[in-house]
Amino acid sequence: xxxxxxxxxxxxxxxxxxxxxxxxxxxxxxxxxxxxxxxxxxxxxxxxxxxxxxxxxxxxxxxxxxxxxxxxxxxxxxxxxxxxxxxxxxxxxxxxxxxxxxxxxxxxxxxxxxxxxxxxxxxxxxxxxxxxxxxxxxxxxxxxxxxxxxxxxxxxxxxxxxxxxxxxxxxxxxxxxxxxxxxxxxxxxxxxxxxxxxxxxxxxxxxxxxxxxxxxxxxxxxxxxxxxxxxxxxxxxxxxxxxxxxxxxxxxxxxxxxxxxxxxxxxxxxxxxxxxxxxxxxxxxxx
Amino acid sequence: xxxxxxxxxxxxxxxxxxxxxxxxxxxxxxxxxxxxxxxxxxxxxxxxxxxxxxxxxxxxxxxxxxxxxxxxxxxxxxxxxxxxxxxxxxxxxxxxxxxxxxxxxxxxxxxxxxxxxxxxxxxxxxxxxxxxxxxxxxxxxxxxxxxxxxxxxxxxxxxxxxxxxxxxxxxxxxx
Lengths: 287, 175
Fold this sequence. Notes:
The complex is a heterodimer of chains A (287) and B (175).
Chain A: H1 2-9, H2 12-32, H3 38-68, H4 72-110, E1 121-129, E2 137-140, E3 153-156, E4 159-167, E5 172-176, E6 183-188, E7 194-198, E8 209-214, E9 226-229, E10 241-250, E11 257-263, E12 272-276, H5 283-286
Antiparallel strand pairs in A: 1-2, 1-12, 2-5, 3-4, 3-12, 4-5, 6-7, 6-9, 7-8, 8-11, 9-10, 10-11
Chain B: H1 2-20, H2 34-46, H3 48-65, H4 72-85, H5 97-118, H6 127-159, H7 165-168
């Protein structure tokens, strides 16, 4: 105790210099060998993750409670609508399952593998978000205990959400594809060329992300085309839906095209996500 | 001792609140930087040493959970705590205008540095757009939040300990 109070009685300049040096040391160590900060991460994890989870649960409970007070008439009308919708959907499902059966039969006939392998998934809750205006990073409540690892892909609403950049025992932080630092190699279904999809902080206000470097001399890619992760991407699994092309233009050299994409996932109300437990097989990690 | 424990509790509570409740973009346009408010307020109330140390804890906490580079926010927050601590000897602590003005200026400077390091250096040059979209909303929310929170931090500080040595030794404020 006495020691602590003596630190504060000594010149504040010394303490200041010490703290600055520690910070600088952490920065350089982090930049050179990123795994050095492991124990510190452990400390943060034990403090922050469980409490964030608790607050999240409280928030969800409050939201459910406030939803309970909504007008009964409105709810019953909604109920009617939903019943109709369910009827329609059952019909669609029946039709689709017939189609699928036919597809498997034909696939067997042609001895084709399924185009997209089934990935094993783990559901996770979003428990915290980066409060700053610059990044789109969020925490989820699953970690290495549930088999998560760095570079695993995260999806929601049927579309790609992001990639795990950091993982602890019971939490993982996910960098969203709308984050300004995110760059993904992607392709358009039905066209051959690849493109680079990059998150853009400024265009995200309008709900779009940017793409560029698309080689498409015939102009096959039009508005509304589906953009999926490409097979040459090193970290993203092949064929995950990113979004739909909203606008496409020729770049000034007329060799490549660029434009904007509306992502499928709803980033404003992200509550539950699915983590794909399969990692992309690359030359490095398969050896 | 109790005062420090409460301070630690405030830091963790602030961090949790700003990353869960205030970060919900469907409710708030921007999250106020509460860790910065605490750092600046403690620096102003209790001097350079406490300011720098509080800043270090706040910055490190943010870095470990979200930071792209561990240590960068710690460094910036230490600087901010130290700067606000150097005003400790010059103004009386019940002066609300000083911490409000200081959070405004320091939050702008902090975001400006983040912009330069992580956006300008990657060739994203449209500074005014970033200023309007990112920096301004956060600074406005942070300043509003300071008006509310400073009273709480000030009251807690008064309740457990009151005036500290650094202020009492001050040339400007001793009567």
